[in-house]
Specification:
Chain B: Belongs to the binding-protein-dependent transport system permease family. Chain B: It is found in: Cell membrane. Chain B: It holds the Pfam family BPD_transp_1. The structure holds two protein chains of two kinds. Chain A is of the alpha/beta class. Chain A has eight helices and nine strands. In chain A, helix 4 packs across helix 5 (146-159) and helix 7 (204-210) packs across helix 8 (245-261). The longest helix of chain A is centred in the last third of the chain and has 18 residues, at 176-193. In chain B, helix 4 packs across helix 10 (245-254). By secondary structure, chain B is mainly α. Chain B has two domains: 4-64; 90-289, Orthogonal Bundle (MetI-like fold). Chain B has helices spanning 4-44, 50-57, 68-79, 90-121, 123-136, 141-154, 160-183, 188-196, 201-236, 245-254, 258-289. Chain B is elongated. The longest helix of chain B is centred in the first third of the chain and has 41 residues, at 4-44. The chains are: A alpha/beta, B mainly alpha. Chain A binds chain B through residues 61-63, 82-85, 87-89, 91-93, 95, 97-101, 108-109, 111-113, 140, 142, 160, and chain B through 187, 189-190, 192-199, 203, 207-208, 211, 214, 290-293.
Chain lengths: 266, 299
Amino acid sequence: MLGVPASMNVIDIEALSLTFETGDGPVQALSNIDLTIAKGDFVSFIGPSGCGKTTLLRVIADLERPTGGAISVNGTTPELARLDRAYGYVFQAPALYPWRTIARNVALPLEIMGLTRAQQQERIERNLALVNLTGFEKKYPWQLSGGMQQRASIARALAVEPDLLLMDEPFGALDEIVRDHLNEQLLQLWAKTRKTVVFVTHSIPEAVYLSTRIVVMSPRPGRIHDIVESDLPRGPRPLDIRETPEFLKLAQRVRDGLRAGHSYDD
Amino acid sequence: MIKPSFFRHSVVPVLTVIAVIIALWYVAALFMNHSMVVAEAQLKGLAFTPSATWYRSWALDKPLLPAPHQVIAELWKSTAGLSIASKRSLVYHGWVTLSATLLGFLLGTLLGILLAIGIVHQKVMDKSLMPWIIASQTVPILAVAPMLIVVLNAVGISGLLPKALISTYLSFFPVVVGMVKGLRSPEAIHLDLMRTYNADELQVFTKLRWPASVPFLFASLKVGIAISLIGAIVGELPTGAVAGLGARLLSGSYYGQTIQIWAALFAAAFLAGMLVLVVGWSERLVMRLMGARPERRAA
């Protein structure tokens, strides 16, 4: 049984490690991770592929089990937090069920939670409105663009009404124009709902634009190289902020961190 | 609305192929029945002109290979030309076979789905049952069928059920194989999603695995319904040729009634085609109700 550090943070990670047993021997995916995430933070994990950023998010979500160290989510184990439906998870792909309409997709977790039809209807309407998808309730996923599908999947995660939102490269597959737009909307949503967000990305501008803190990770073994505190204003930020010297300075520091942590011998 | 392209791309090629087959068939009938016509002429002491020989080889009572028009005439006579209650009506025999087919298909589908559910959810069942299920299909059905009929008869089960069980024996297999694949078809990300919702096994099944397996189910059903019919016909062979299309085939071969055999064959093929068509229609209906993207047909 792994320990649970006592703290008021939403997420508390101490000396966490995870080793996968593979056919080619053990692979250390995460090594000696120390990280705390406070309530209301927007934290991004950034790093090259293989740095363990997605794995770390999956550990928080109890989709992977760590092999060492301690982690608490909402003051309890990740498993209990998951059983308590303490977080909403947004995957790299929208992962909508093709045989359900958009409204029924948002209803999926609500059905599982055993909400009444009326409660479901209320949450569907409210959360689809939050992601600007009102009027698309009866459409099937294939009738929506990729960006709209991902927004629907965000509405589905929000419908659970968690205080914690875990997002694994949610806009990675979208083109830059759509991505900019969704980044802006996501910040507005975060400011409105005061949720804690953990966001995985491999885009420096995306990480700097969205986050209050940026966790720079490096591979082999996956570890935290640097944690950059953002001095950009909290809350909704205009997209133009990306042209300001403060933004560029932060981006430079993240880029330097990625360079230093990444060995280029492969 | 029927588009002109439908005519050009579907009707014309199909009709052309049918015309070629019929032409080849007449030629084949000519050659295969020629010796019989010559023998007949010698027996009766007649001298046929070449054209009379031709004509005669397409009009024999018990030809080696009946000509198409003979088969069609027999089909017409034994369907439209007879009361449905008649023992010589193909409609009557077709119905006997069809009822065994449908019962066997239904049982086979249910059995296949239940086995697949067990195999997907229980590792023990996967390891222990799958080899037997595959082995069951390597046994020649022609060898199993008579034994099954005899054994069931000995314990007092006769009539429709034994034949249906042979259909079941054949049709459960594609359903098991297809449904095991179908129930395992959800992507990891869809299963992870269910895990983040703390969904139980039953919810994962009803809300994810089952709907995801529907296209696989229909692919299996199309195979299953066709071999159910074969199972029912094979099941009719050892029952002493009482009723059914299989019985017509058997009695036809007892008495050298080749035209009757071919008519029964065509009736069976027609029945199989209709059954597969009905499964195909229900598939399209169900997929539409499940919001599937309409298929775009290649022009």
